[in-house]
Specification:
This protein is an alpha+beta fold. It folds into two domains: 65 residues, 434 Repressor (Amino-terminal Domain) (Orthogonal Bundle); 69 residues. It is 33% helix and 19% strand. A hairpin with a 3-residue loop joins strand 2 and strand 3. Helix 1 crosses helix 3. The longest helix is centred in the first third of the chain and has 16 residues. The chain is elongated and about 55 Å long. The relative contact order is 0.13. The C terminus is likely disordered.
């Protein structure tokens, strides 16, 4: 039987999973639970147990209170909120996608995402990708204008001087 509490938890879990571009089976494998359990948690037909709650919170780097709906922010009040400066070199911990942080977006439930664009190659800008803040790892202090400069105007560096 579905209850409001389980539905709220399921909605939070689904939002976290989808914002990380993961399928239910991928999340299940990463946190060592069944795909069916992930689906049941998301649709509210199964109540999240303490062990799974902690696995999920650790994986997404959020507080258990956030998943339980007891906190609007992802982290505990005593924790420092993760924030990255744009222009830093970064990579996605899961896919290994590397590049430069060029944008930030904040969504409902405190789900911050950052855009990473790969360095320009052969005068062309690559496609940027968005990642949940918990998936980002800073790998360098910054970027020089020459590293993002391309022959044609456009992209994140269209105003860079030649």
């Amino acid at each position: 039987m579905k209850n409001l509490f389980s539905l709220r938890i399921g909605e939070a879990l689904k939002n976290l999973r989808e914002s990380s571009n993961l399928k239910q089976a991928e999340l299940a494998e990463k946190i060592d639970i069944s795909r069916g359990s992930v689906g049941n948690y998301e649709n509210g037909t199964r109540t999240l147990n303490a062990e799974s709650l902690l696995k999920i919170a650790d994986f997404f780097q959020v507080s258990a209170d956030f998943i339980l709906g007891r906190s609007a922010g992802k982290s505990n009040e005593s924790e420092v909120k993760t924030m990255f400066n744009l222009g830093k070199k970064a990579k996605d911990k899961i896919t290994g996608f590397e590049g430069i942080l060029i944008g930030k977006a904040s969504y409902l439930y405190g789900c911050d995402q950052y855009a990473i664009t790969p360095p320009a190659r052969d005068g062309k800008c690559g496609d940027s990708q968005w990642f949940d803040v918990g998936r980002i790892e800073i790998i360098g202090e910054g970027v020089l204008a020459e590293e993002v400069q391309v022959e044609k105007p456009g992209g994140p560096n269209r105003d860079c001087p030649k």
